[in-house]
Amino acid sequence: MEEGKLKLATTQETLNETIAEMEEGKLELAKTQEALNETLIDVETKNDELRRTKQKLTDTETELNSTLAKVEELEEIANNVPDCALNSTITSQLDFLYSDIFYQQILTSDKLGVARKLIDKLEHFVGVRITDRMIEFLKLSLQYLLQLR
Questions:
Q1: Is it the case that residue 89 has pLDDT exceeding 60?
Q2: CA 139 – CA 147 distance, rounded (Å)
Q3: What is the per-residue pLDDT across 67-78, written as a single tens digit (0 to 9) for each?
Q4: Which of 28, 115, 132, 142 is the most exposed place for a label (fewest CB within 10 A)?
Q5: Exposure letters 12-25 (e unless 16+ CB within 10 A, then b)
Q6: What pLDDT is attached to residue 141?
Q7: Do residues 84 and 132 touch, judged by C-beta distance below 8 A?
Q8: How far, CA to CA in Å, does 29 sit from each of 17, 32, 34?
Q9: Selection from 52, 66, 64, 146 nearest residue 99 by Cα
């Protein structure tokens, strides 16, 4: 019987140690669960931040693509603008005197007045790009004004 009591006491002691270990395990498990919950919250916060960053990146990419399309369109326009033939031949502001209207002609007050009128009319074209068509228009206007004289 003594042996049974000793065995019972030993079993009781082992049981108490096991219960204590289980209690420690429960506390450890609770701490781990709390740490896991905090980690999950952190992960969700980072996911939200990633979603916002991804949306900003998508918006930026859309804006960049739009800007690139505009740049390409403007480059296309710029590449298709013909060079003005006069740009390669005019070397000074007085080269207009080589035009048929003035060259080998006698400079008269009338011709000078017509040139001045034409220059005065240029005010109406402020803000307009000087192109071949514009120059041709001005040349025709000058010829027409000279014919009126």
A1: no
A2: 12
A3: 888 888 877 876
A4: 28
A5: eeeeeeeeeeeeee
A6: 74
A7: yes
A8: 18, 5, 9
A9: 146
| Contact partners, residue 110, CB within 8 Å, separation at least 6 | 146, 149
CA angle (95 as vertex; 89, 99 as ends), nearest 5: 90
Helices (H), ranges, 81-129: 85-89, 109-121
What is the distance, to the nearest Å, from the Cα of residue 88 to the centroid of all Cα atoms in its chain? Answer: 36
What gap in Å lies between CA 120 and CA 138, rounded to an integer?
12
Helix segments in 2-149, DSSP class H? 2-80, 85-89, 109-121, 132-148
Long-range CB contact pairs, 81-86, < 8 A, 24+: 81/131, 82/131, 82/132, 84/130, 84/131, 84/132, 84/135, 85/132, 86/135
**Which token pair is 44?**
């969700």
Chain mean position to CA 38: 40
Do 118 and 142 meet the contact criterion of CB atoms below 8 Å apart? yes
